[in-house]
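Fill in residues.
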């Protein structure tokens, strides 16, 4: 696995391989809540971004620790 740009309506982050998973590093403030989270696939990262942005727009974002 290699480092990959994560593009969702413009570049929003970087996916860094870590132990067969992908660590999301946010480069745009509107997805900073997802920074450093681990995902299994690029599509999973994109779904998380889509959910996060939609929830933020609706005002229903709930962050879990």
């Amino acid at each position: 696995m290699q480092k990959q740009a994560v593009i969702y309506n413009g570049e929003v982050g970087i996916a860094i391989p870590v132990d067969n998973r992908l660590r999301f590093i946010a480069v745009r403030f509107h997805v900073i809540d997802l920074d450093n989270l681990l995902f299994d696939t690029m599509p999973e990262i994109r779904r998380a971004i889509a959910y996060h942005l939609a929830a933020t727009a609706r005002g229903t974002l709930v962050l879990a620790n």
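Residues 4-58 form one domain.
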